Amino acid sequence: MKFCSECQNMYYIKINGEDANTLVYYCRFCGHEDNEPTDDGVVVLRTEYKKTEQQFSHMINRYIKHDPTLPRITNVKCPNEGCKSNGSTDKSNGSTDKSSSASGGHDSPKGHEPSVIYLRYDDANMKYLYICEHCDTTWKTDDNK
């Protein structure tokens, strides 16, 4: 904090009228202006970003697949071979079709279509996190390469 050299009231900062890239201290009480910067108050705002690998573990919990506001896609295959969306159940004997008709159609074969939630975890590199709704398997965009 800097104070006026004339009346000892607090200085305020404004943009210099002659040069828009410099700041000027001015006093609201007496109107005095000081163009002399101090060594300790030169930086007005500094924002530093660290370029590190984004962590996404805080984005995943056991309730995430029940969130209806998250986007879902059906054209991405789950990498888990045992997932029922990949057809891991034995459909040759028709057990899936019989159970779906007995339960009133709630577990229809259409219910085993891939349903994957996707979340962007790295905006700069457009990296996504995928979560299978059937088996809770999670994978990243880089895992597909």
UniProtKB/TrEMBL annotation:
Region Disordered: list its residue ranges. Answer: 78-113
Q: Where is the composition biased (Polar residues)?
A: 83-103
Q: What is this protein called?
A: DNA-directed RNA polymerase M/15kDa subunit domain-containing protein
